[in-house]
Amino acid sequence: xxxxxxxxxxITGLKVDAIVNAAxxxxxxxxxxxxxxxxxxxxGLLEECKALNGCNTGEAKITxxxxxxxxxxxxxxxxxxxxxxxxxxxxxxxxxxxxxxLALKDNIETIAFPNISTGVYGFPKEKAAxxxxxxxxxxxxxxxxxxxxTFAVFDEENLNIYKELLVLC
Length: 169
Ligand code: ADP
Hints:
Layout: E1 4-8, E2 18-23, H1 32-41, H2 43-50, E3 60-64, E4 72-77, H3 88-105, E5 110-113, H4 125-142, E6 148-153, H5 156-167
Parallel strand pairs: 1-6, 2-4, 2-5, 5-6
Antiparallel strand pairs: 3-4
Helix pairs in contact: 3-4, 4-5
The structure holds adenosine-5'-diphosphate.
Adenosine-5'-diphosphate binds near residues 114, 116, 154 and 158.
């Protein structure tokens, strides 16, 4: 599907309507992509996040993007991988679905996702990629208003997984 793109890049540099942050439940910043987004956005982002009262796993909340080149940041909380019998797959799918739903509500047409949960949260990368691609594809089929979804992959392993899975689509 030509509305799905892969880019090996730091997501903070992307000039899309919204970038998605793989946040933690506090929404008060952390390591990995979350830390990179807060550093690049500047302190205004943390100030706005403080007023949101956190976010549950699988849900999403939206803020401004401050010094980032995107217009908005959608913060979602992916599940911590805990063996696979704790609704991890369902919760990861929810994180993608709820982020896309929020984007639609906010008239966002271009959006970029990091590989949610595949860093510190330890979700197996290929399993996560299959879920991400499936959720994005089914959403795009239903919603032509969304013009493009970019998977901003950071590491080589995810890049290869996404390239392989997306040629099969
Ligand atoms: P989580 O806690 O959800 O696992 P992490 O931030 O630890 O979140 O990792 C999620 C993914 O984001 C990993 O694949 C990691 O390589 C990637 N990542 C880390 N920094 C960046 C960045 N600046 N831009 C895009 N992806 C990033």
